[in-house]
Amino acid sequence: MSAEKFGKTFFAGMALILLSAYGWHNPSHSDTQTSDPLLKDVTAEELRGILQSFEGDKAVLVNVWATWCAPCIEEFPEIVKVQRKYEDSLRVIFISADFPDSRDLALQFLREQGVDWTTYFKTGSDQEFIEALSSEWTGALPFSKIINKEGEVVASWENSATFSKFDNHVKQALNR
To answer: Which of 72, 91, 103, 112 could form a disulfide with 65 if both were Cys (CB 3.0 to 4.6 A apart)?
Structure first.
């Protein structure tokens, strides 16, 4: 097979894989998945309302992750530890950015990590979702944002972090 023919075949195969990953899923299957209270669908607009609902009550740590993102998986247990440490004054909001056909994997991962509070599954436009969280976020994963009780952003960053980094920013959000 010539290099040119191989290249065309390779790119056609990759296009098929990408189409499969991004859009071909069984809607009736994913509809049955939305009923689990551990992982609820959320749009950008709904996320804005959820974040506002904690103002005056708790600081918030938002983390956007996916099961296919190795740095996300690496930092995830550290964030769960932070939530457990500050459960009375902090709310961790996990948002899965997995593809719709990977919803079961995300749900399984959450259970394996001992997450026992409501988390979210991103739906709708990626760009709207990015803009709802931060105008400075490029869309790279993982993405974390810490907000104090007054609704002010204390810190936000792309890439994974250690327990110490999360803990320090949460303390700052809690004025400790």
So the answer is: 72
